From TrEMBL:
Gene3D superfamilies: Intergrase catalytic core. SUPFAM superfamilies: DNA breaking-rejoining enzymes (SSF56349). InterPro entries: DNA_brk_join_enz, Integrase-like_cat_sf. GO terms for biological process: DNA integration; DNA recombination. Keywords: DNA recombination. Transmembrane segments: none annotated. GO terms for molecular function: DNA binding. This is Phage integrase family protein.
Length: 105
């Protein structure tokens, strides 16, 4: 995962993320007990998106693209667009998003 970076624009490494979660666990024991990590957060978030908005939106939210090795033909026909992804984000965060549709924000 390289979505965040240092001030010099170098991406944060997996090892650095692991170190940060170890330090957080020293202050919040439940983080260590539950095995919270960057991957755990991603998995939990994507599971929530899939259960509340569907498989195609969860795939797009994760940044996955349809490939020939994808699980099933249906994935090629069920693709989510930016409005659906923005709606999932707005629902998850309970914050408005200008590209979201069908929200009460």
């Amino acid at each position: 995962m390289t979505s965040c970076c240092y001030r010099n624009k170098r991406p944060i490494t997996r090892r650095r993320y692991d170190h940060l979660w170890t330090r957080i666990g020293e202050h919040l024991p439940w983080v260590t007990t539950q095995g919270v990590s960057t991957h755990w957060l991603r998995h939990t978030t994507l599971t929530w998106v899939e259960r509340n908005h569907g498989y195609a939106i969860a795939r797009a939210y994760a940044g996955h693209t349809t490939t020939s090795s994808d699980t099933g033909t249906t994935a090629a026909y069920t693709q989510a667009g930016i409005p659906e992804i923005a709606t999932a984000l707005a629902t998850l965060t309970n914050e408005p998003h200008p590209l979201a549709t069908n929200t009460n924000h």
